Automatic annotation (TrEMBL):
GO terms for molecular function: hydrolase activity; nuclease activity. Pfam families: PIN_4, TRAM. This is PIN domain-containing protein. Keywords: Hydrolase, Magnesium, Membrane, Nuclease, Transmembrane, Transmembrane helix. PROSITE patterns: TRAM (PS50926). It comes from the Bacteria. InterPro entries: NA-bd_OB-fold, Nucleic_acid_metab_PIN/TRAM, PIN-like_dom_sf, PIN_dom, TRAM_dom. Its cofactor is Mg(2+). The chain crosses the membrane at residues 35-55, 76-99, 105-129. SUPFAM superfamilies: PIN domain-like (SSF88723).
Amino acid sequence: MFKKIMKAVMFLIGAAAGYGVSLLATSLVPAFHDYSIYVSVFLSVLFAIIFYLLSDTVFDKIINVGDRVEIELRRFTSLDLILGLVGLLVGLVIAFLLSQLAMNIGIPVLGPVLSVIFYILFPYIGIIVTTRRKDISNIGEKFTQKSTVKKSKKKDTELYKILDTSVIIDGRIKDIASSGFIEGTLVIPKFVLQELQHIADSADDQRRKRGRRGLDILKQMQNEAKVDIEVSSEKIDNVEEIDDKILELASMMNAKVLTNDYNLNKVAQVRGIEVLNINELANAVKPVILPSEELEVEIVRAGKEKNQGLAYLSDGTMIVVEEAKKRIGEKLKVEITTVLQTAAGKMMFAKIKE
């Protein structure tokens, strides 16, 4: 609905612009005087059509600029914004006074040009001076000290963490976020949603299931009261790859990246962007099992060596149990005898505890 209104507004603006151009054309070209009505209608319709066709592009640019402004404003405190507004008003007043003097110079072209320069230059200088001068900023510090402490505590919980496709499809992020271990806002870029949709529409059955699982996980997280999710419509036009877009957005928002992607993890570290890897978290919270500890495991299949049976822990760690080949399907109490760390992961050897 909003886009339709924008198209109508752009159409009217284009018609008005075309009419203005027609008035200028008839005043500059005497030959157009006799056809002024036709010129006005033609240019009004032409400009209206052009503006209407450009409305989608203009609308997207406005949203993009709005998102960028919002991201930049998040980096400023309330005091910075107030001081910036004061500087803007002071700059506008100075520009107005100087432009009045410039208009009285008597030179037709110079006065308007100087006025435009003043209205651009002095508000900018006013904003820069008031927001960057520490002595001015410190004036309100003693009055806002208490609120600043509260704000700093709140700011810690307003950290942004951008989710990539791999961590959404994995699904563990839902339970981690619901438990309250991840503070702040989880950001889902629109291009990540589009990639998930593309995977969910894939002709390959496995990819389609993974994509739909990711979308289901997001829906469940949105319904979870403890999880704060924000969908970012920020467009990253200067890069093509999804991973590069995620890193660019993280850099713009000063955000962390949540991922299971090994390569994205390494590239982000090279670029100085903080990464939270779910797999690393899972490894960090694995229970530490030492030799001589007793466990209850289920023998699921035979091992490679004679009379060996294999069991697995919930995290996938393999346990080789001696003399357990004939007891497949049974739950046994075993005693860990050896723990080996290999390149593929951790492996344990155990014997049946009688």
